[in-house]
Write a structure and sequence with these properties.
This protein is α/β, with parallel strands linked by helices. 43% of the residues lie in helices and 19% in strands. The protein is built from 5 helices and 5 strands. It has a 5-stranded mixed sheet. Strand 1 and strand 2 form a beta hairpin. Helix 1 packs parallel to helix 5.
């Protein structure tokens, strides 16, 4: 089941890629249905808070008419940063599933772990490595193409 929803998150990541945004995609699921989808738009919006997770949380909250996303699961292609991990905790998401680890800014096990290393009023269960290769490959492809694009612009 996790792979089905991660494939949907990968579709969102591809939308970000197509806009020259870092390809991170996210979906939020409640009762077996996707209630929110989002992808990074940081560059387009010139807003550092426009991460896929934050945007998906906002959409899900609007759809449910509540800031508490109780009994919701999040699927995201890249390990959340500290901002997003904090938002996941504060929105009361039940379960997080992510694909690729982020050794530079990951806050759910790579650089630090907000979910396990600190005591908050809400506990988020998590599983990493869902469609890991696919999630890593879209990121690697993006940065390879971005480097090539910048190289060509210099010529």
């Amino acid at each position: 089941m996790e792979e089905k929803y991660m494939k949907e998150a990968l579709k969102e990541a591809q939308k970000a890629f197509d806009k020259w945004e870092v390809p991170v995609g996210c979906v939020i699921v409640k009762d077996g249905k996707i209630i929110a989808r989002a992808h990074n738009i940081k560059e387009l919006s010139n807003d550092t808070t426009k991460h896929a997770e934050i945007l998906a949380i906002q959409k899900a909250s609007k759809k449910l008419g509540a800031w508490r996303l109780l009994d919701c699961d999040m699927y995201v292609t890249l390990e959340p940063c500290s901002m997003c991990a904090g938002a996941i905790i504060n929105s009361r998401i039940s379960n997080l599933y992510y694909g690729a680890s982020d050794e530079k800014t990951g806050a759910v096990g790579s650089v630090l772990n907000l979910f396990d290393d600190y005591t908050f009023n809400h506990k988020v269960n998590y599983e990493k490595g869902i469609l890991k290769d696919e999630c890593e490959n879209i990121l690697k492809s993006f940065f390879k193409e971005l480097r090539q694009k910048k190289k060509e612009e210099k010529v």
